[in-house]
Amino acid sequence: MKLSFSWLPLTAIVSVMICLAPSYTSAQCCEVRGDTDHSGGPPNLADVVYLADYIFGGGEVPQCADEADVNLDGYPGDISDIVMLADYIFHSGTSPADCDSCWVDIWFEPVFGSPASSVVWRAAPHINQVEIEFRYGEGVWGNLGIFFGNWGIIDLDPGSFLPDRVRACAVGYDSCCDEAWVW
After folding, report:
1. DSSP assignment, residue 160?
2. What letter would DSSP give residue 25?
3. Between 45-57 and 79-91, two packed helices, what is the crossing angle to 10 degrees?
4. Which residues of 43-65 are buried (b: 16+ CB within 10 A; e: fewer)?
5. Residue 177 domain flag
6. Domain that residue 61 falls in
7. Residues 106, 76 share a domain
8. How confident is the model at residue 113 (pLDDT cuts 50, 70, 90)?
9. Number of Cα atoms under 13 Å in the Cβ half of residue 4
10. Which one of 101, 118, 156, 176 is CB 3.0 to 4.6 Å from 109, fit for a cystine?
């Protein structure tokens, strides 16, 4: 069984993201998701204004990325976070998730013109280790490894390794897994 993993695309993407991303403090800072001004209280109008000023007016970068990632999409302090926060405050919309909420998504991504595919995963921003497993038919689960970071891509070699399903679980969280089948 041969695994093929390419760091080159991942390295290029990460390099661009690091160059373009604002500098946030550690994800360990999250106390109340939606408290974008890091005042310590529940989300309020001041948090909406703070986030809007950051995005549109060149205001200060939020002190805590996880608190600014109101909708847990992995992009802290964007327009969708303002919309969700305003909806929560003014229209009793969906409340921001707890800071320690866990989610993991995994899926197969086809490589066009080839029988090969890649396994792609992403997890909540504060998740820093994901265990990936694979399975053929009703056989036992095999461990592909523990990967660091909250997203990644694994290229699969079609000549020797094409499982029919994969599972990703956040390390250190009970019942925080996702499973995908080959299409």
Report:
1. T
2. B
3. 160
4. bbeebbebbbebeeeeeeebebb
5. yes
6. 31-91
7. no
8. low
9. 12
10. 118
Is 21 a domain residue? no
**C-beta neighbour count of 129 within 10 angstroms:** 15
- pLDDT tens for each residue of 38-58: 898 899 999 999 999 999 988
How many structural domains comprise the chain? 2
Q: Both 52 and 84 in a single domain? A: yes
Task: Report which secondary-structure segment, H or E, holds 118.
Answer: strand 117-123
Taking the model in full, what pTM does it have?
0.52
Where residue 74 sits, what CATH number does that domain have?
1.10.1330.10
What Rg value do the Cα atoms of the chain yield, rounded?
19
Lowest mean pLDDT among 49-53, 63-67, 88-92, 124-128: 124-128
Q: Write out pLDDT tens, residues 79-96.
A: 999 999 999 999 988 888
What CATH number does residue 138 fall under?
A: 2.60.40
Mean pLDDT of the chain: 78
